[in-house]
Amino acid sequence: MPILEVKNLNVRYGEQIILDNISFDLEKGDALAIIGPNGSGKTTLLRAILGAISFEGKITLVENARIGYVPQKIDLARDLPITVGEFLSLKDAGKSAARQTPAYSPKESLNLVNLSPMFLKKRLGELSAGELQRTLIAWAVIGRPSLLLFDEPTASVDVAGQETVYELLHRLQDKYGLTLILISHDLTIVYRYASKVLCLNKAQLCFGIPAEVLTPGELTKLYGGGRKFYHHMHSEN
Question: Are 180 and 30 in contact (CB under 8 A)?
Fold first, then answer.
């Protein structure tokens, strides 16, 4: 049984079509990359899965599925006088008692993202971009989710730290059998880490195994001029 099933999903703002007839499903342990040009509806799709916006169609999660989410940007003042430990404690406050499986402690969630307990006492403003991103991943996994959503997880991280973040996500997925959905503009990342890819430009242009569906023709339809990028991508592997 799929952990997530999306059928005939449509999102409209007034007369404007944002997503048109999107359908796909994911099994436990899948890693789905969503690709497409800016304004293609990628973040809107994540928000629909989260139940944060109205939509037509059907989104079905397996029973007792829990979702973790890391947005592309977080509206959080970096000079806010709050420590990492306090920030993580806010996430699950009042929810653990109602859950059969208890949440991770802040210390445990930091350990999952390879940050030492010393970070619990650090203020958010003291963290580097990479450390903050790992803290946000710790925030996303503290409730022991079965499905993790990431909106461009390395958008604010320098090139040197990007591979570290993706390796971390891959390790979490492999160790805990998590299902991942991530938005990315980097086809190298798609080929290296994703088991499935969804090509999106308001409508669904492709869905499947990256090596099978990301043909030069599909990339050209998606981005325009995709053929050159496709061959460059494969020359690196």
Answer: yes
Cα–Cα distance measured from residue 9 to residue 23, given in angstroms and rounded to the nearest whole number: 7
**What three-state secondary structure class fits 108?**
helix
- Record the pTM: 0.87
The three-point CA angle 106-177-44 to 5° equals 80
Structure confidence by residue, pLDDT tens digits, 135-189: 999 999 999 999 999 998 766 666 666 777 888 888 889 888 899 999 988 888 8
Measured in residues, the chain has a length of: 237
Share of the chain residues as helix, strand and coil, in percent rounded to the nearest 5: 40, 25, 35
In order of their start, the domains of the chain are 1-22+52-64 (no CATH), 66-177+191-196 (3.40.50.300)
* Low-confidence stretches of the chain (pLDDT beneath 70): 73-79, 92-101, 154-161, 225-237
- Please report where in the chains the tokens 């979702």 appear, as a residue: 67
Residue with tokens 């690709």: 35
Strand partners, 147: 67, 179
Q: Which two tokens stand for residue 108?
A: 């445990």
